[in-house]
Specification:
It is built from six helices and no strands. By secondary structure, the protein is mainly α. It has one domain.
Length: 182
């Protein structure tokens, strides 16, 4: 664990974090609209579900053309997977930078990394399901659904921890610093 925190400490600089956020915004404002409005417009995607059943997967994929399923698997592999790594690292660096709790609770800065890991496993599931539709193995769907739910749960926990750190940093930690300097 110490090596992970040493690595985070090397890269937890505002310029690295800002560069990560620029990439995140670029994907969300440029690539995602381009992809989803041009190729997936009006269709649901598995990534945005909070869990799903085999019947739900079939219902979603039934509305796709073969080209859309293929394109969905390609964008999942070549856009969403690198994106998962970028946002996981960026948010972990931000949490690391904002953490004023010294050694207490420091492992919580890795929550976004867990989101990324679950997102990558989910992506593998999406590629499998979209490439093997309609004959995919129904027994693997609950596994991918659980991973999908864990991704969203850990994303929520990451956001909660970010909120706590921001509140602590800007309202409690700073007011304590200003009192001690007067």
């Amino acid at each position: 664990m110490k090596k992970i925190f040493d690595l985070l400490s090397q890269f937890a600089r505002w310029k690295t974090i800002i560069a990560g956020f620029i990439l995140i915004v670029a994907v969300n404002l440029i690539l995602n609209p381009l992809i989803f409005f041009n190729y997936m417009y009006g269709n649901e995607i598995l990534d945005l579900q909070f869990g799903f059943s085999a019947a739900k997967v079939r219902e979603i994929f039934k509305n796709y053309t073969g080209d859309q399923r293929f394109y969905y698997s390609l964008t999942t592999l070549f856009i969403d997977s690198p994106y998962a790594l970028i946002y996981g690292l960026t948010y972990s660096l931000l949490l690391f930078k904002l953490n004023t709790f010294a050694n207490r609770l420091k492992n919580l800065v890795l929550l976004p990394v867990a989101v990324s890991v679950f997102d990558l496993i989910e992506n593998a599931g999406i590629v499998y399901l979209s490439r093997t539709y309609p004959e995919f193995n129904d027994n693997v769907v609950p596994l991918f659904s659980a991973v999908n739910r864990l991704k969203w749960i850990f994303a929520g926990l990451s956001l909660l921890w970010l909120t706590v750190l921001l509140f602590h940093r800007f309202f409690i930690y700073s007011s304590g610093s200003s009192r001690s300097s007067s």
